[in-house]
Design a protein that fits this description.
Largest sheet: 5 strands, parallel
CATH topology of the largest domain: FAD/NAD(P)-binding domain
Number of domains: 3
Number of helices: 14
Shape: globular
Helix content: 40-55%
Bound molecules: flavin-adenine dinucleotide, 1,4-dihydronicotinamide adenine dinucleotide
CATH architecture of the largest domain: 3-Layer(bba) Sandwich
Radius of gyration: 27 Å
Length: about 500
């Protein structure tokens, strides 16, 4: 009997789960009507649809403002899984969430313009925007006025002005970059097996060089070696003796933000995976077929060498976007800031009153990571929601004061007085918003051959761990952090598909 009831309970929970999931999907696919924005409310312009801006929009009560979003990318990209797209382990659409879908579910409608902000005029409170897409209408540049502005435009790829990088190197920041890398890997492999190809040329074409030993470079190198081990060498056996991955880093070690123990573990794992790490090697010049690098030997002697390559992935960190540089040049308080918009503890751009900055374009003494950007976005949303409530209470208070003066009797005056006291109490509560405080949850990175490293903040201390178990933790953590259930399902399906059938080695 107990067994029968247990089965019934399981059966009912399964049906309940299915109904719940079905309802969730139905709601997702059938958005409700939205309230039209109220033009009398303040116009809040949000630039960008990355980690910072989307976290702000997710948590913002859009009924309080006229919200306008400007970004050349009409989707949110889950960057932590982007290195997996370069080898086709994950399809890029699985980690993209259309911004339209997400905004359509907000209570009050939000305007979205697919455009790039080219200039922010701080004095006039105007953002100049350009439609940079292929199809342009009669109007492709215009102005967007704002009362409040949030800058969340992220950063560009740093090249430090090294000649040849932009012409010959590939970056890893956007979906298009991952697709270009995937194409180039396959192109190099196919060209290397071209009839009568010379030995030296085969070696060059199959030399995959990654510059920058930060997490982007390390994760990509690991994914690429996995691709070779599990699929490429199986389907294109001709390349198996010459395919080689090299990671070049200017500093004495890779992953400088991780603990010494995990740096050593990563370097040991790379050695086992036969990835070469060239530390203390600074790239100075890039040509179409080789990079020129200066390496420092153990005796401190510097040596210039040429390293031939077929694929070059450039992952040396972030640089300022022109629109951010231009804004900084307009504000005297920003003159000493070099790496981004200096902000105060409430993320207000220093020297301004109505401009806030989040994510990689803001400098608030934290590393430029998704974790920081999304916490900053959520903080701003909370603050803006509170600000709107404050304004509402303040205007009610003004109405009450007027009503108190005009009250016909003592009872009526007392009633209004009580209401004022209540409102003042609420106002004090609402106004209590502390400054932004970042809560570091830890750092995670995939290092190939189903191993990951993690520096996790654990109760009161730190936990440094690396290996296969950490890899499962890495996978489950990132799966749970995906933007939507749809993304989670797609990523899970991609992982299963790759496990069952391998990665696709076709070029496009
Ligand atoms: P972004 O997410 O870059 O978004 C910027 C937005 O602004 C984009 O929508 C862009 O289209 C838009 N934009 C650009 N120019 C303009 C303009 N002129 N006008 C209007 N809009 C504009 N961090 C982690 O914490 N964990 C990780 O595992 C991790 N993995 C990563 C893997 C890779 C491959 C990369 C590249 C980064 C990774 N990061 C990770 C870092 C993380 O992605 C960034 O810190 C984060 O994206 C910063 O968020 P953001 O909102 O500032 O900028
Ligand atoms: P990074 O700034 O972390 O690392 C770039 C590396 O390139 C540095 O170690 C630097 O010494 C090296 N370098 C610079 N110029 C060079 C040259 N000419 N020759 C050789 N090496 C050179 O950049 P990355 O990896 O792109 O990351 C950017 C940000 O995104 C970081 O804040 C990082 O923490 C974050 N991120 C986090 C991830 C994670 O948590 N798993 C994954 C990817 C990025």
């Amino acid at each position: 009997r107990v067994l029968r009831w247990t089965w019934r309970a399981i059966y009912l929970s399964a049906i309940g789960g299915l109904v719940y999931a079905g309802y969730g999907i139905w709601v997702m696919r059938n958005p409700m009507d939205q309230v039209e924005p109220d033009p009398s409310k303040k116009t809040l312009v949000v630039l960008g649809t990355g980690w910072g801006s989307v976290s702000l929009l997710k948590n913002l009560d859009t009924e309080n403002y006229n919200v306008v979003v400007v970004s050349p990318r009409n989707y949110f990209l889950f960057t932590p899984l982007l290195p997996s797209c370069t080898t086709g382990l994950i399809e890029h659409r699985s980690i993209m969430e259309p911004i339209r879908n997400f905004l359509r579910h907000k209570k009050a409608a939000v305007k979205y313009y697919e455009a790039e902000a080219t200039k922010i005029d701080y004095e006039k409170k105007i953002v100049y925007v350009n439609d940079e897409s292929e199809i342009k209408g009669d109007v492709s540049s215009t102005e967007v006025p704002f009362d409040m502005l949030v800058v969340g435009v992220g950063a560009e790829n740093a090249t430090f002005g090294i000649p040849g990088v932009r012409e010959h190197g590939l970056f890893l920041k956007e979906v298009g970059d991952a697709q270009a890398i995937r194409r180039r890997i396959m192109d190099c492999c196919e060209t290397a097996t071209f009839k009568d190809q010379h030995e030296d040329e085969i070696k060059r074409l199959l030399h995959m060089v990654v510059v920058g030993g930060g997490p982007t470079g390390v994760e990509f190198a690991g994914e690429l070696q996995d691709f070779f081990e599990s699929d490429l060498k199986k389907w294109i056996p001709d390349i198996k003796d010459n395919f080689h991955v090299t990671l070049v880093e200017a500093l004495p070690n890779v992953l400088p933000m991780f603990s010494k123990q995990l740096i050593d573990y990563t370097e040991k794992t790379f050695k086992e995976e036969t990835i070469t790490i060239r530390t203390k090697t600074m790239v100075k010049k890039v040509t179409a077929k080789y990079i020129e690098a200066e390496s420092t030997g153990p005796d401190g002697k510097k040596q210039l060498e040429q390293i031939p390559y077929g694929l070059l992935v450039w992952a040396t960190g972030n640089a300022l976007r022109p629109v951010v540089k231009d804004l900084m040049s307009q504000i005297p308080a920003q003159k000493d800031s070099r790496r981004g918009l200096a902000v105060n503890e409430y993320l207000v751009v220093k020297g301004t009153e109505n401009i806030w900055a989040v994510g990689d374009c803001a400098i608030a003494n934290y590393a430029p990571t998704a974790q920081v950007a999304s916490q900053e976005g959520a903080f701003l949303a909370r603050m803006f929601n509170q600000m709107a409530k404050t304004q509402e209470i303040e205007s009610k208070l003004a109405e009450c004061s007027e009503a108190q003066e005009k009250a016909p009797s003592k009872e009526a005056r007392d009633r209004v007085f009580q209401e004022i006291k209540e409102l003042q109490k609420r106002l004090r509560r609402v106004k209590q918003i502390g400054p932004f405080e970042y809560s570091h949850q830890g750092s995670l990175a995939y290092i190939g051959s189903e191993k990951a490293v993690a520096d996790i903040t654990w109760l009161t201390g730190n936990l440094s761990t690396g290996g296969t178990l950490t890899y499962f933790f890495w996978r489950s953590a990132y799966l749970s952090m995906c933007f939507s259930t749809r993304n989670r399902v797609l990523v899970l399906m991609d992982w299963c598909k790759a496990k069952l059938f391998g990665r696709d080695v076709s070029r496009e």
